[in-house]
Amino acid sequence: MVAATSQARPLAGDPEAARGVAVRIRGLTKQFGSGEQRVQALRGLDWDVYHGQMTLLVGPSGCGKTTLLSVIAGILDCDSGSVDIFGQSLTGMGDRSRTSFRARNIGFVFQQYNLLPALTAAENAAVPLVIAGWSRERAVRRAVDVLNSLGMSTKQGSLPSQLSGGQMQRVAIARALVHQPRLLVCDEPTAALDHETGLSVMGLLRETAVRPDRAVLVVTHDNRVFPFGDRIAHMDDGRIVQVQEWPGAAA
Description:
Radius of gyration: 18 Å
Shape: globular
Largest sheet: 7 strands, mixed
Number of strands: 11
Number of domains: 1
Order of helices and strands: EEEEHEEHEHHHEHEEE
CATH architecture: 3-Layer(aba) Sandwich
CATH class: Alpha Beta
Strand order of the largest sheet: 1-11-10-4-9-8-7
Strand content: 25-35%
Number of helices: 6
């Protein structure tokens, strides 16, 4: 284990960390409510997430993981501190610029899939491109290519109701990757899956999403997926308290 305060620099001898910091967080605070109802979700949090790695964020329920994820994704504002993503200050952006930055650079994988029931797998995966202004035909072609890479070549025309949980999560991963984001954020991607399917999904994430120019951040309660990560950041009471280098990654 290494203390969280040491994470301003890569671990010695780690060539992937040497590629640079993708997300740099300093002094981050966030509270909800006021007076006796006040909840301090983030307490002066410092953290770095590196390019070319899958970083797992773990900790007990209520420790601030979801709040931290939402601030990194630009969904929530922080009260103080800074969030720099790929060298750009997210906290200094206006709403429109932040939305545009998020659409270009960040992909999301949610535990509940969030697929549109009336759209096919390919159409669901193409949604970010359609929102970005691509024609439907071009967006679906790109989505089909990504689905193929995830082993979904026979399910491109299926509706979500015709897919298993693991297949729906693969569509969700395809949707997150279709616009080639530089930061992929996954919130409990295996929570709704059985153990075997969850490991399969994590293996696919590891194989298809981890790239030298991309950072992958996964929030999880499932310690069985720890071997897929390069680093495991332990969070408690609004802070990153320890960061563990995981030697078994990609084994």
